[in-house]
Every structure is written in C-alpha cells, then in structure tokens.
C-alpha cells in the first residue's frame, strides 16, 4: 500500500507598499473618474497577490478641525503638512486588494478624533482591517487580523513620529506610539511592551507583520535604534517588519528567517519628481509561516498614481543581508 502524503501548505503571496495618501491631487481622481483610479495601473500586479497591505498616510474624512499641534508658521513654511482624503477612497483601496492598513503615523490625527473615527468606519465598512489607531491605547495596539488560504495574519502598527497630542492614551484616542511616551526613547521598557504584543499576536496568528512609521524624511538608511527595534520584533516572533515615513526607498534585510523593509517610500502620493517618485511593491511568498522567496517590483509615481516600470529589483531566496551589496536601496 503506497504511503499517504499530506498536501503541502498552499503558497500565499502578500504584497506590501508604503504610503498611500489619497489627498491633494489624488483626491480629484477619487472624485472623478472614481475611487479605483489611483490603483488602476497596479491592478495587474495586485491581482497575483492574495492580499495587500500599506500605510494610510492621512485620515479619510470631510469633518474635523485642523490640529493645533502643527503651527501656522510651520505649515506656511511647508515644514509641516495637514493631510486628508475623501472617505470614498476606501472603496478603491478595498478593490485594489488591500486586506488591512496601518494607521499609526504623523497625519492620522491631523483633523482630530472625529476624522480618525470616520477613517476607521470608512475602511471597516469597505472590509479593510485597521491597526495603529483607536479610541484608546489598548485599541490602537490591537492587531488587524485577516486570513488567506487558511493562513492567519496579524498586522500591528506603530509610529515613532508623534506630534504633540497624537499618541493614544489609556483614556484618549490617537495612534499607537512607536517609542516610550514617557521618555521619548525606544528604550528597554518600550521594547519589552512591543515584544510582548508581538508574542501575543503570534499566539493567535500564523504570521505577524509589524508596520513601523519611523526614520527621517528623505533618508533611506535606517538608524541603529531602528535596526535594533526591527531585530527585536523578528526575534519576538514577527515574520515581517515594514517601514514608512522617509518617502524614499530604503534597504531590505533578511534576518533570522524574517524580512525587514526599512522604508518602502511613497506609493499613492501627489509629490514632486525625484527619488520620492521611485517606489516598489514588496512581494513576499510564503508557505505556511515561512518565507520561501521575495522580490521587489519597481514602481514610478506620476501625478500621484503608481505604475509598474517592469523588471524586478530583487528576486531571491532568503540569503540577502542588510550589509550585502545585493541589498536594495537608493544611493546615499
């Protein structure tokens, strides 16, 4: 009698992108021709994935008052920005295949708790999971769970770029802080809280993803503290760490069976020409709770809209390292 062989776990493909900001000129596209317009050129790429994740870089709301945390002088000098997009954008995000969005960033509270709540409602009504913002810190730290082909994912979202009043507390709404709200540092107590949250999420999911809003704008190379934090997240049980905020691409590191993309730059974003319009879709191929391979698909942003430019930036099994000449990143 022949031996019985178990079916191998199915392969699941997850696509990750950077900042999605359906405001400014992109908002006009959402209104006409419609909410699918910002992602229309990417649908052939996303169609091959089981799920897509990214960072929503603005609230989706017509309501709320501008935050006082960003001064009029800073806004006038364009050192700070107030961002928001129309709630209708959530339909296009869902139709593009996004399963969950990271909301912990330095713009989610630009128009206060009302706009944040509208964002949560718009995304959840469209069937998109949310992580990184909520009515209190416990809710903001709660993962977004989703399942594909029997594989359960947990997305955690944090921001260490925190304007005054943006961080959620035990009794007030806001975003999940990516550093200690007491010391302002990524210190041992904070890392302990972070790793415990990852371990809890791992106990309830096969794959844990940590989405971090960190770093300095226009600097792709991560700081030592962010490398330390990313490594701690992988060591605690996360399989993927994805970064955003610098608005440019950064290196991708293979570490202890996990993968770290320190910054995926912009994705849907109305921005000026240059490095900020160079982007990528990070495609991760998994079998069970292990990464089998990954690749980065280069993307160019024109008029706020991303489009693939052909080819692959990296296509390899797990053997690349941050220090390797093969790691992908813009020239420093």
Please describe what this structure looks like.
This protein is an alpha/beta fold. It has a single domain, classed as Purple Acid Phosphatase, chain A, domain 2 (4-Layer Sandwich). Helices cover 21% and strands 29% of the residues. Helix 7 (188-202) runs parallel beside helix 8 (224-236).
Mean pLDDT: 92
CATH secondary-structure class: Alpha Beta
Q: How many whole angstroms does the radius of gyration measure?
A: 19 Å
The CATH architecture can be named as 4-Layer Sandwich
Into which percentage range does the β-strand content fall?
25-35%
CATH topology-level name: Purple Acid Phosphatase, chain A, domain 2
Number of domains: 1
Largest sheet descriptor = 9 strands, mixed
Into which percent range does the helicity of residues fall? Answer: 10-25%
Q: Could you state the order of secondary-structure elements as H and E?
A: EHHEHHEHEEHEEEHEHEEEEEEEE
- Strand element count: 17
